[in-house]
From TrEMBL:
E.C. code: 2.7.7.7
DNA-directed DNA polymerase family B multifunctional domain location: 64-120
Calcium as UniProt keyword: no
Database matches in InterPro entries: DNA-dir_DNA_pol_B_multi_dom, DNA/RNA_pol_sf, DNA_pol_palm_dom_sf, DNA_pol_type-B
UniProt keyword annotation of Membrane present: no
Gene Ontology molecular function: DNA binding; DNA-directed DNA polymerase activity; nucleotide binding
Protein known as: DNA-directed DNA polymerase
Organism: Funneliformis geosporum
UniProt xrefs under SUPFAM superfamilies: DNA/RNA polymerases (SSF56672)
Domain of life: Eukaryota
GO BP: DNA-templated DNA replication
Top EC class of this enzyme: transferase
Amino acid sequence: ALRCQELLVKLNQINDYRKVAFIVHVSLFDSHYRANEMKVRNLQGAYAFKCDMVFSSRICENIEKGKYPNAYIFSPEKGIETKRPVTGLDFASLYLSLIMAYNLSPDKIILTHGEADIAEKNGNILHKIEFPFNNCIVQARSVRHDNKFEKKGLYPV
């Protein structure tokens, strides 16, 4: 175990986790083993506190579970493919590109028509989101930022 720890120190991996833990206000264990969502929330909270802002970090208790239509998920076949080239789709960066392009931040999603009307009256441009889920159509709106710095982040109501 000591040699393993010395190797991690030599690779500077432990120090990186210490820096992350310090910056995002989490324990060393959390910076190594936990997902990034908690780290991002803590970083947002620290920044919001410095700017005298408040945001909700409450987790929704009644999360709806279901399936999206036309999605087929299959297990990959193990082995090496030699007959044709194999490509990987980088959905993580595609997802981030869509978030940046359409400003699809959870803080900017509007789920009710009343809030959407208020946001439109305040001069915000809304992007309509619509998709089937659990045999019904889910509708929402997102406030567009149009690459203007003052419109990025939390939207004013």
